[in-house]
Amino acid sequence: MSIFYRTTLLLVFSLSLSNASNISGEKVFTDYCWGCHHQTSVAFGPSFEEIANKRTIGEIQGHIIAPKSTYKQLGHKRSVMPSFKDKLSQDELTAITKFIMSYKSKKDK
């Protein structure tokens, strides 16, 4: 493997990591979630604090991507949450999930 090829791969990998870390969960929250969810109080939907204390990371991400497929298994009678499957990149999904989980009660961590 040439030095140019290795350097190029390293640069591409570094750039992808830096772009992923530049995505703010709070920005994703403001752009997509704030109308229905608040961090610590109930709005139209449950607070992030409640979600973080009741759900796993996988359950949260699954519900963000396909709420119509997961609402019953999560104990809801209905779901009006839209799917964000085609709206969020994987990096944005990871960022919002980390942001939600940051509200998990200390005793539950």
Structure description:
The chain has helices at residues 3-21, 25-33, 48-54, 57-65, 67-70, 90-101. The chain has a single domain, classed as Cupredoxins -  blue copper proteins (Immunoglobulin-like), CATH 2.60.40. It is built from 6 helices and no strands.
Strand content: under 5%
Q: Helix and strand string, N-terminal first?
A: HHHHHH
What is the CATH class name?
Mainly Beta
The tally of strands reads 0
Number of domains: 1
Tell me, rounded to a whole number, the average pLDDT: 82
The best one-word shape is globular
Major sheet attributes: none
| Second rung of CATH, namely the architecture | Sandwich
Can you tag this structure with a few keywords?
single chain; 109 residues; mainly alpha; Immunoglobulin-like; 6 helices
Write a compact overview of the structure shown.
The chain is mainly alpha-helical.
What topology emerges from the helices and strands here?
Blueprint (H helix, E strand, L loop, with lengths): L2 H19 L3 H9 L14 H7 L2 H9 L1 H4 L19 H12 L8
